[in-house]
Write a structure and sequence with these properties.
Blueprint (H helix, E strand, L loop, with lengths): L5 H32 L1 H11 L2 H30 L7 H34 L13
Helix pairs in contact: 1-2, 1-3, 3-4
């Protein structure tokens, strides 16, 4: 039996990680496009597959711009208060405008997905999400 070296194991792990990353990235892209064009079918497909990784990736992708805007604003605030850096007024207003736009877009996307989830549950389509049990 051949000995496995650390280098060959690391290469194999890196290769499998790359393949898994490409697969999940492609599925995320397809699911995000699907949420735009046919949200009911996409939500149903993700739910039927019990794909928690795609569910988490979609929610992270939706909330990432908002988290980035809040983090950037926090860094600018810290630079202004702790380091004493004084940014021009138009820069501060631009950052606040960007944060406001990001907040509004995140809320709109969340409402859009919430609406479709509500439609699925209230229109008696919820049974489509359940696994069919064989008797």
């Amino acid at each position: 039996m051949a000995k496995k070296t650390l280098k060959s194991s690391a290469k194999k792990i890196a290769y499998l990680t790359l393949l898994l990353g490409l697969k999940e990235g492609w599925l995320l892209f397809v699911n995000l496009i699907g949420l735009i064009y046919h949200p009911f079918l996409t939500i149903r497909k993700i739910r039927q597959k019990h794909d928690l990784s795609q569910t988490a990736l979609i929610f992270i992708t939706i909330s990432l711009p908002l988290l980035t805007a809040v983090f950037t604003t926090g860094l600018i605030y810290l630079a202004m208060t702790i380091l004493g850096i004084n940014f021009p007024s138009f820069f501060k207003q631009g950052v606040l405008l960007l944060d406001l736009i990001t907040l509004i877009l995140t809320i709109l996307v969340s409402l859009y997905l919430s609406y479709w989830s509500y439609q699925v549950i209230t229109k008696n389509h919820y049974s489509l999400f359940m696994e069919k049990k064989c008797h």
